[in-house]
Amino acid sequence: EPPSSGYGTPLGSPLGNYGNQNYEGGNGHHDNDHGEPKSYEFGYQVKDEYTGNNYNRKEASDGNQVRGEYRVQLPDGRTQIVTYYADWQTGFHADVKYEGTAQYPEQYNNYQGGYNNGPSGQYGGSNYAQNNGYNGGGSATSSVSIKDYSSGSGGQYNSGYNSGSNYDSYSGNNFGSLGDAVTNATKFDYKDIPNFPVSTVMGHAGRLLFGHIGSTPVVCMQGRFHFYEGYSLSACTMPVRLMKLLGVTTLVVSNAAGGINPSYRTGQIMLIKDQINFLGLAGVNPLRGHNDERFGDRFVAMNDVFDPEINKLAKSVGEMTGLKEIQEGVYASVGGPTYETVAEVNLMRVLGVDAVGMSTVHETVVAKHCGLKVFAFSLITNECVASYSSKETPDGEEVLQVAKENEGKLKGFVEKMIPHLAKSKL
Ligand SMILES: O=P(O)(O)O[C@@H]1C[C@H](O)[C@@H](CO)O1
Ligand SMILES: Nc1nc2[nH]cnc2c(=O)[nH]1
C-alpha cells in the first residue's frame, strides 16, 4: 500500500488496542482469551521522509494496567505527546502535551510533503528553507532547466513530446529568454502550486510553464532550488519527480558553471558527459532515506546517465545554431554558496573536473532513479581562479551578466535541440 501523504496518526487508538488486548469493553478484566490477565509490551516508530510521517508509540501492560505514550509530528510543526494509562476499574486516562510552537508561515514554508531530510532545524522546524539571496545558477530539478535572468525568470523546462502523452523535459536556469522559447505557455507561479517550494532568488521568476517548443510539449521550470538556499536535496529535486508523474520522458538540464579546465573560456557551452557528485560522495544524496519504489529501485547505476549519442546530436545541433567551440566534459557540483578556493580549483583539476557548479548533479540522480533520459549542459560563466597571483575573483554579478549575454544563443540552441531530441527518439 503506498504511504499516505498525510502526516499520519498512530495506527490504532490506544483505546482500540487496549480493548483488543487484555480487556473487552470494560465488562470484566478476566474476559480475555484465556481468562487470565497478560503482560505485554510493544513499541514502534515511523519516520518516513518521503511522506513526512513521524510518529512513535510504546505501550506496556502488567496484566492489570496499561501504560503508554505516543508522539506525533503535527503539520503545524509541533509534536503532540500523549501519555496514557488504562485499567478495567477506572478506564482510560490521557495527558496531552505539545512541544514546540505552532507555525503558520506566510506560505508553503511549512513543507510537509516529505522533503524534510535536508539540513535540519535551520528554519524553525519548517522543512523548507527560505530562498534567501541570489543564486546565479539554477537549472531545473526535473526536466530541462534553463536559467532566465533577463526577465527575472530562472528556468527549468520540461519539454514533452510524443503527441503529448510522453514528454521530454528540459530544464535550465538563469537564461531568461529560454522561457520565451516556450510558445503558448500557461504559467503557474510556484507559490500557487500546493506544496511546491518557492523561489525568491534574484533572477528566478519561480514559475512553471506548460507549452511547446516547436511541436514538442514542454514543461519549463523558471527557477530552480539549490542546496545552499537551505532546501534539502530531496526538496530541490522534487520537481523532477513531478515531471516524471506528468509523463515527461527526458530531462534537459542547464546550469551556469565555472570553468575548471584551463582551456575553457567564458561564454562556451560544455555538454556534460559525466559528473562528480561531491555531496553524494560525502553522503548527502537526494535518494538517501526511504526509497519510494514507485519511482525506482533502491540502488541506481550512474555510469550511464549521460548518453554520448545525445551529446553527439547536441554538438551538431549546436554547431548548426552557431555555437562556437562546444566543449564536452565532466561537471562537478559543490554545496555552495561559496566559490572555490585556489586549492579547491587545483584539486578539481587533478580529479578530472572540467566545470563546477552548485546544481544539476542531484537533479540527474533523481532523474536517473525514476527512469528519465537526461541531457545536460553548462554555460561557462567564469574561469575559475587557479593561481594565487591572479587578482580575479568570481562573483555572482558576473555569472548573471554572462548568462544574460549568452541567453539568446542558448535559446536558439534549445529551440532546435528539443525538437531534434524528440524526433531522434534518443
Ligand atoms: O543553478 P545553477 O547551477 O545554474 O547556478 C550556478 C550555481 C549557483 O546557483 C550560481 C553561482 O553563481 O550559479
Ligand atoms: N561552484 C561554482 N559554481 C558556479 N556557478 C557559476 N560559476 C561557478 C563557480 O565558479 N563555482
UniProtKB/TrEMBL annotation:
EC numbers, comma separated: 2.4.2.1
Residue stretches making up the Nucleoside phosphorylase domain: 180-418
Residue numbers spanned by region Disordered: 18-40, 51-70
Pathway: Purine metabolism; purine nucleoside salvage
GO MF term list: purine-nucleoside phosphorylase activity; structural constituent of cuticle
Domain of life: Eukaryota
Gene3D superfamilies in UniProt: Nucleoside phosphorylase domain
TM spans (from-to): none
Catalytic activity: 2'-deoxyguanosine + phosphate = 2-deoxy-alpha-D-ribose 1-phosphate + guanine; 2'-deoxyinosine + phosphate = 2-deoxy-alpha-D-ribose 1-phosphate + hypoxanthine; guanosine + phosphate = alpha-D-ribose 1-phosphate + guanine; inosine + phosphate = alpha-D-ribose 1-phosphate + hypoxanthine
Biased composition (Basic and acidic residues): 27-39, 51-61
Any one Gene Ontology cellular component term annotated for this protein: cytoplasm
BP-aspect Gene Ontology terms: nucleoside metabolic process
Keywords: Cuticle, Glycosyltransferase, Signal, Transferase
Family: Belongs to the PNP/MTAP phosphorylase family.
Name of the protein in its database record: Purine nucleoside phosphorylase
